[in-house]
From TrEMBL:
Annotated protein name in UniProt: Putative monolaris
Source superkingdom: Eukaryota
InterPro entries: Kunitz_BPTI_sf
Signal peptide range: 1-24
Gene3D superfamilies per UniProt: Pancreatic trypsin inhibitor Kunitz domain (4.10.410.10)
MF-aspect GO terms: serine-type endopeptidase inhibitor activity
Keywords: Signal
Amino acid sequence: MFRMPFPFLVCLIGKMAVVSLGVADSTNQVSEFCQDPYSGGSYKERCAGPYEREKRYIGYKNKCKQIFWDPCQENFRTYRTLAECLGYCAKESVCVKTPLEHGLNTQENKYHYYFDIQEGTCYSRLGTFQRSQKGENHFRNKTLCEEACSPVKI
């Protein structure tokens, strides 16, 4: 009588369960955020050592959303900085464009606003808002700048 070794049997049953359940490798999953493939490694690799929950960004509706990232729970691509997220997930956004520096009337002592991608905030600059510059990193007021560019907060 042939006796199958116990470890072999356990391994075989485990592989059959994975195949029958259709469990996919997490590295091939596609995120609903930015539609980019997750490349963070398998659960075992991500959760083998100590980690800290940290603020990260995910692409969300052509903007970036700030989240607390837990590598053992999340399986979508995250970005450490807002600039990195916007550069990847919102390439066409006015928020990633270089702010206007000239061509505005600075004699009127009025201000317009622009988004600083490195700081993740809106700043004012001397010079009037010009409608002809619509579609640029150039806003009439701070509220419009923040609505367009500031990350969605957690």
